[in-house]
Amino acid sequence: MSIEVKVPTLGESVTEATIGQWLKQPGEAVTLDEPIASLETDKVAIDVNAPAAGVMGELLFKEGDNVSVGSLLTTIEDGVVVAGAQPPAPRTEPAPAVPPAASAAAAPAPVEAGEPVALSPAVRRAVLEYGIDPATVRGTGKDGRLTKEDVIAAASQKQATAKAASPAEAVSAPAPAPLAAAPAGERREERVKMTRLRQTIARRLKEAQETAALLTTFNDVDMSAVMAARDRFKDAFEKKHGVKLGFMSFFAKASVLALKDIPSVNAQIQGDEIVYHDYVDISVAVSAPNGLVVPVVRDCDSKSFAAIEKAIADYGRRAREGTLTMEDMKGGTFTISNGGVFGGLMSTPVINPPQSAVLGLHRIEDRPVVRNGEIVIRPMMYIALSYDHRLIDGREAVTALKTIKEAIEDPTRLLIDL
Question: Quick one: the chain helix, strand, coil %, rounded to 5?
């Protein structure tokens, strides 16, 4: 008997996806709910899971093909999965060669025989980058799946063990064969089809530039007070709430103050109407393997610092694992983008339509500033607010950014709503 595997419902208004990768090939054994394919939509990557145990049937589409919701992808055929059988090796490019001393390092506890090894796109990249055999790493993710962190941890352990090996062994071991050098003067090009997510990012950013009257205002923030508060309470905060106290929760709460004072910054243009929101749902820009995604932390105006930090940490983890859902991206009234984690000093962020404003954060660096007539060194950050000038006047944008600056420089304002 054959069981059909079709493209699942992908989310509101999403009717099409692209075959990102087949995780199983015809004739391979699959288990119930095991990922067999990865679909790329406009916003997220979605795993297609096996509806039953059996044997993989014919693949009706190739990787890179576009498919519609409800399209038949493949079938699961009746088959007997031999208990304890070793699963097929993952279909990845050969791992880069490693020095003999490193290859002799003790590997983590192997995965039990017969356990399926299905890898998300982020994990596949990590496996190739670090040269780790996924079959030797025990996953800590949902249902025992490998995460990127598992691969990185295994690579670190492997490297540490290799360094501990005796110098004599390292010297006596034959050196790995050098990679063949490209012919002198040869120039190469590679053509790679844009992913559906990258195409959507490109289209939406261009639409924002063509539709909105974009303008950016800047300010700088003395981070001394927030850094002192974080250093003072971070251990107690993590012990009580189980999550680290970061800077994003401070900026989220500071943004709430600004958006409540200047409602137009939290509003949207829809046709010939302006829609004002009495709630604050903040989209947080997160770097994912296939591009930038913006999951939404809802009701930041009523959430605690801990609840905001937990939501951001969860989104960051799931973005790396490629497990964000369409619902995670839906909505949002304002965006915060932190380019500082990549070392950016200053930027002009682009709004996330149909939103009307985005706050850009940047790296913290010690700079000389004047305080009470004296030059002192302070940890400073440039912040930027890009906004749609059709809706937000310059005075309102500057005032909103100044409110954020003042709340960060004096976090007491966050407690007394000032």
Answer: 35, 25, 45
Residue with tokens 């990549």: 342
Task: Name the phi and psi angles at 270, rounded to 5.
Answer: -130, 105
Identify the structural domains of the chain with CATH numbers, from first to last.
1-81 (2.40.50.100), 84-166 (4.10.320.10), 213-416 (3.30.559.10)
Phi, psi of 358 (to 5 degrees): -145, 135
Handedness of CA 293, 296, 297, 300 (dihedral sign): positive
Task: Return the active site residues.
Answer: 389, 393
Peptide bond into 116 cis (omega under 30): no
Among 220, 238, 242, which residue's Cα sits nearest to residue 230?
238
Can you tell me the distance from the alpha carbon of 213 to that of 83, in angstroms, rounded to the nearest whole number? 63
Contact 408/226 with Cβ under 8 angstroms? yes
* Cβ–Cβ under 8 Å, residues 127 and 92: yes
CB contact at 8 A, 216 and 385:
yes
Going by C-alpha positions, the residue among 225, 105, 78, 248 that lies closest to residue 164 is 105
Strand positions, DSSP E, 124-213: none
CA distance 14 to 395: 38
Structure tokens that stand for 220 in this block: 């700088």
User: 0.85 cut: is pTM over it?
Assistant: no
Write the DSSP string, 259-297: HHHSGGGG-EEETTEEE--SS--EEE-EEETTEEE--EE
Q: What is the mean pLDDT of each run of 10 residues along the chain (418 residues)?
A: 85 77 89 88 79 90 87 82 42 43 35 47 66 78 72 79 54 50 75 77 82 94 96 94 94 96 95 94 83 88 95 90 83 92 90 93 96 95 96 96 96 80
User: What phi and psi, each to the nearest 5 degrees, are found at residue 294?
Assistant: -130, 75
Q: Which residues pair with 361 in a beta bridge?
A: 338
Residue 67 CA to residue 46 CA, distance in Å, equals 13
**Inter-residue contact 44 to 329 (CB < 8 Å):** yes
The pLDDT, as a whole number, for residue 43 is: 66
